[in-house]
Amino acid sequence: MRHRTTTRRSVVLTWLLALTLPLSPGCGHDASDHDHDHDHDHDHGHSHDDDGHAHEARNGGTLVVLAEEFAHMEVLVDPATGAVTAWALGPHCENYEKLAQASIALTVDAPGVEPFTVELLAVASGTTGETVGDTSRFAATDARLVGVERFDGTFGAITSRGQTFDTTSFPYPDGTDERAETDGHDH
Q1: What does pLDDT average to over the chain?
Q2: In a domain, 49, yes or no
Q3: Residue 105 pLDDT more than 90?
Q4: Is 11 helix (H, G, I), strand (E, B) or coil?
Q5: Which of 41, 45, 68, 88 has the least C-beta neighbours within 10 A?
Q6: Structurally, how many domains does the chain consist of?
Q7: 3-state DSSP call for residue 44?
Q8: Which helix (H) or strand (E) segment is 121 a member of?
Q9: Is 1 exposed, middle or buried (0-12, 13-18, 19+ CB in 10 A)?
Q10: Nearest-CA neighbor of 153 among 161, 142, 137, 164?
């Protein structure tokens, strides 16, 4: 009888663990860091390498340094639809940083196309409580980005954590973060 009770207890504990584990946040972050109204199929966070650490794009995009170990942007373009999304990230790309601005200008200089500017608008999220003027996500769709896989980009003014970055240029999809960790995708 004692063996049967122990076995039942083990089964119950195993099921409870299996049911509660998906509800707990991973990577050492708050649950609010992960529920962000967008898809991400990649592990998040901060990996360590021989030089100390590597930054990892949270959404599978390209990392752009605004100021080393201070602020980053992540950019993701869908060449099939012309959709472009940018996320403001903190020092080690571990957390989203909410920005007060309503939009960010992105100038695109792609081969065979006249340079053009796309206005990325702040995206509100009922899930995270982010609002225009207090969000980390900016997005737009522009038909001129359809089929564009490589370009030289320049962000207009971005104010993050009290510091304004007037313009920040970067190659897409390579980015400017030398510590970016590759995940096997063609970034």
Answers
A1: 77
A2: no
A3: yes
A4: helix
A5: 41
A6: 1
A7: coil
A8: strand 116-122
A9: exposed
A10: 142
